Amino acid sequence: MRAHFLPYFTKIFNLRIDDDTMRRRLQERTADDWELGAEAIALMLELNRNDEKPAGAIDVDAT
Hints:
elongated; about 40% helix
């Protein structure tokens, strides 16, 4: 699905973050911020560890 939209952009950025920072930020969320449970946090951390990114994407440290 993502690949469908890539031709519409001249630059693509890939935000990278370490697990500890991501876990802390996700756990600090409230219901107003799109609160996540333990299983969803585990999934987000797993996806974060995946190095898959669009070809030519520019990595940005988002910590």
